[in-house]
Amino acid sequence: MSYLAEVISSAEEIEVDDINKKVPDLKLSIDKLKGELVQYTENVYIKYSGRPKENKKMLTTAQNLENEINTLQKHAENAVKKQLLKANKELTEHVETLHTIDFSLQVLLRMSQVNEKIVEFTTQLDCKEYLRCKQIITGLEKTLADIPEDELVEVIDELKFYVKEKSIGLAHEVENIFKENVITQRKDSTASIKISSNISTLEQALLAMFYNETDTLKYNSKLSEFNRFLWNNFFVPIVDNIVDIKIDQNEKYSLVELVIKEADKKSEYGVVFSNIKTLLSFLEQHFSFPLTTPDNELTTLKYIGLDIRDNLSELLIKHCLQDTIPSTVEGLKNYKVVIEETEKLEKALKHSKLFSEDATPLIEYANNIDILFINKKCSEYCVQSEQIMKKDLHDMIEVGEPYDPDNPLDCGVGQFLQCCISKNVIELLNFCEKILQQSIKGSDVNAGRILVTIQNIFRNYTKLVPEYHNKLLKTIPQQVALFHNNCFYIAHKLIEWNGTYLFRLPSTLNISSTGFELEVCQLRQVGSEIFNNYVKGQMKQINEIMKDSGLEEVALAGELQPVTEKCVRQCIRQQELLKTVWHKVLSYQIYNETLGIVLNSLCTNIITPIVSFEDISTNLGEQLVELIKIILSRGPKLFTDSKEISIYVSSWYKLNELNFVLGASLMDISDRWADGKGPLALQFKPLELKTLIRALFQNTDRRAAVLARIQE
């Protein structure tokens, strides 16, 4: 072995011996330090007797031990590598012991650091350095969370609990600082905000509140409560009420106070804008603090803006700017003043950071004045049209071309037959036609908007009028007839407008193919439906009256009861009342067709039971003839031309033939049947006529012969 190798080997042996001696000593030192640190922690955080100097001494000891362990570990590992072939078991055990000692030391070192930071926290809290306190607490929570599990679990848990208590206490203290320095009050119609001049303490408290908060809008702080107070008691009243706002200041506080003067009235837009600027100025001067460091990107006013900016935009637009939209062309020309003032307000909101730099909701709204103007005018048109629709229906006027019964074909398509309509329909049509004429002269956008508005007005007519006049339309026949005529007259005029105005509207609207077609269909449908429902109601009444007439039970009694004639007369009287009301209201054709349907219902109620009787005595036959004569004599008078009754009453001829059969002989009946070619054959089926003959005449050879001649 060379001299150099001997020297190196000798040095390594000395190094190994040194490790073997020092490892047990280090283990004893660590155990001693652990005991001291546990005792210290228990004294400070369990028994509440503080020893900050002792902790500092222990921290220094722990750091020195850490350095010594690191040196020994390094030497031991080098020695292990060189002695590996010699399998130095003792040295390997020492290395493992050093790793265990180092683990325990790391735990003790972090606990000592925690104790040191707690001492610093107390000092900073006394100095009201709330941001630094929050930073220390945040660091402590992370350090304690990162300490690996050790036999000192109980002591570590005590430290975590202690730090949690300090964190909660800090949160309460900074909230109290905010509450003491920012005082909000509301009493009756007065609201105020008083802000302390001690801005450094307030700023520290706010920074601490928001330190390490990733989602500031969800942070439940006093500032969130302040936002709600500011919104409900300042911004909303400024826009919605007439208010006074004033600012006062002294050495201790700055004050802004709002008093609601008239709760049910609004200030004009200029006053609203001025009051908002006054409030913004106060907030910028006395409540503009950073909430984050070091960039100061988030401030109190930006925080408020994040919370309320969308609602504030909507409030100003819907409750203020919307009221500034003019109703006249002259007002539209002068609207640039409002646009300029709106732009100034939006700049003030951006400067205060309540609005972001790229937000332009107010000026965008104001710059759309042309569209807003026509929208407002169209809304006003709809309101005015509804007021017209709500006028009485019975105030009527005659319109249309007279019906010529001698030349009915001359009353062709395109003509509106003479009838009565409500005067308010003329007013409504004139109103809408004037608007339509204006649209021809306007821009494409305006023309399209006005056309849609007119369409909506007439669609609304079919909904609003039946609803508003609901009770009258169900009970008063004149009102029903007028509404029917109104709908058809409006539809007639809309068809005319399709040919008169639509081709003059801008071609870009692409409406020439449809125009008012949908409205025409809807008007006719609703007008017919309501009128027909009323007519069905009249027929239902006739059916109910005749059901109580006892006519169906007459054959059993052998004679008519007085109630039967009374019921028939009641039905005729009901139709005569309809004639009185409808004769001059409905057009010639509609009037006669409608009365024909109602009278035909009565005729059917007479004919149907009689032709089913199995036995009709001579006396009963005479009574039935007299009963039918009531209808035959009074029925024709219901119509404009009594000679046309058979045109409108489909069972009129059958009623006449029934009347003939009831009073005729077998020979007369046979002659009138005329082998199925006579008048009787046109109205009665063979079975019906045979049933009548069997009921009227006794069973004789002559009756049998007549019955034999009546074949299908």
TrEMBL record:
Residue ranges constituting the ZW10 C-terminal helical domain according to the UniProt record: 566-710
Coiled-coil residues: 55-82
Pfam families: ZW10_C, ZW10_C2, Zw10_middle
InterPro entries according to UniProt: Zw10/DSL1_C_sf (IPR046362), ZW10_C (IPR048343), ZW10_C_2 (IPR055148), Zw10_middle (IPR048344)
Residue ranges constituting the Centromere/kinetochore protein zw10 middle domain according to the UniProt record: 192-389
Record key words, sorted: Coiled coil
Domain (Centromere/kinetochore protein zw10 C-terminal): residue spans on this chain: 416-543
Gene3D superfamilies assigned: 1.10.357.150
Gene Ontology CC annotations of this record: cytoplasm; RZZ complex
GO biological process, one term: mitotic spindle assembly checkpoint signaling
Name assigned to this protein: Centromere/kinetochore protein zw10 homolog isoform X1
